[in-house]
Hints:
- By secondary structure, the chain is of the alpha+beta class.
- It folds into 2 domains: 6-250, Lipoprotein localisation LolA/LolB/LppX (outer membrane lipoprotein receptor (LolB), chain A), CATH 2.50.20; 258-428, no CATH class.
- It has helices spanning 11-20, 133-139, 220-232, 241-257, 282-290, 301-310, 320-333, 338-344, 349-363, 366-376, 404-417, 420-427, 440-459, 461-473, 478-491; strands spanning 23-25, 35-44, 58-63, 67-71, 82-87, 90-95, 100-105, 111-113, 145-146, 156-162, 165-171, 177-184, 187-200, 213-217.
- A hairpin with a 2-residue loop joins strand 5 (82-87) and strand 6.
- Helix 4 packs across helix 13 and helix 9 runs antiparallel to helix 10.
- It starts with 10 loop residues before the first helix and ends with a helix.
Amino acid sequence: MNRVQAGKSTKLALLLALALMPLLPGNAETAKPSTMKKFEVRYVADDIDPSSFGAKPRTCYRAGDTYGRVEEAPDEPLGLHGLIIIAAPDVWMINLVDSSGKHILDKSTPAQARMPILASGQRAFKDLEFGKELQFFSDKGIAATDGPVTDGVKTKSYKYSESSIDTELLVNSDNDPLRLTIATPHGKRTLVYSNYKTLPFDASKFKQPSDISISEIDINTELASVAKESEEEEDSDGASAAIESAGKESTQAKKSDSHYGADTNNGAMRQPKAALKSLHSSKDLWQWMTYYYLFPAPDLLPTALHLLEEEEAFDKENALPPISSFLSRVFLQNPEKIQQWVNQAQITEEHKQEVFPLVLRLTRLPAAITEAETIEKAIAPADRVITHLDLSPDKLDTFYISSPSDLDMLWGCFLATGDKRYVQKIISTVPWSKKLTGSINKISIGAAAVWSLTSNAQQHKLVLQILKEESAAKPELQYDLSKIIEKAEKAQ
């Protein structure tokens, strides 16, 4: 896995929670329910490899409007085994591989657990939820008709269509869901249910596990913003709620914590017509970094390091990956200046020890690695950051993207070099955002790629050009990339 710091692996859990179960204001129950539903659900489609992670079943629990639980299958290549527990107003997002997790407390009163099946932008289907499938059709007054015999079982069929989306729910004689088919202009997905049971309520299923290391997250502001943007979203094509929610959370994180491609007021930057001769302000700093590939000015790097520290960028988890990769490419382009820059850097020893070893190792230059080892002598072995990543553009086929922060590193490399291969690698993850059945982590990566490509295409003519070239060269990406291109051009 391409993790710069192993201790940051639980960052993806936040995307997991937002993807499946946003907490929204509602009518919470005042008493615990007496029963709960338990079922397994898996996705089937022509483009889903039956042996892939996306085809593996998830075990879900639903108890009234307050409790929910999703147990994902292990995703061994990514080192993830997701577990989401919700007992409104509490939500826990857990990775069972490293026994770590996050806790969110929704401070709004009352709070309600929701498990949407379609994106919230599809308002006609906002109440179609896991564990409430039949209720959605019943509330619309849809009468059952005789359905096909499925696996030797007679079924009843409920159908509802709106906004170019056709849905059909098949239930057995006990009204338990068997299949839910969702057809859109872009494809068809079937949710196959099994072991659908109504059991006595078990409170232990909705409590924080005792053997998990939990950290706290205050996310009410982000959730409010996500909900507001979701209400305004009109053009969703029926993809899973995971796609939309993950993308919106990623957008919020980037607006607040990541700096490439934006000024300090979160406004879009425009390409400068000449190189900066000096750096005096935060705006100068981000312009220098954002358009470095157009006007390389390595002599300004010492001042840039000082301003980065003043901006507290080295202390922001989301900012460190793109900054580190950016600096590594500038170092690589100027190997004769590396030792001077390290020795004369006007930043604290703490930040030197935190940032320089990573930046130096990312260059993969023997002399730079030796310099990194010298700095690391003052760092406790447990706190050292050892990376074997190769960010060379001709080695990107071996660069496995395992988190949105890996996309950030690719953007950092692009801003320093202007090499289109970094953007092409990011574009390769766009289809992940449309995989209704894939790993939630991959969906969040794809959503982050779509957002970052759209944002950077507005600010970089070269990014827009690369998108158009890839769209023309790869018909399978044409639809998705055309939407990104259209949005970027409208914003210019």
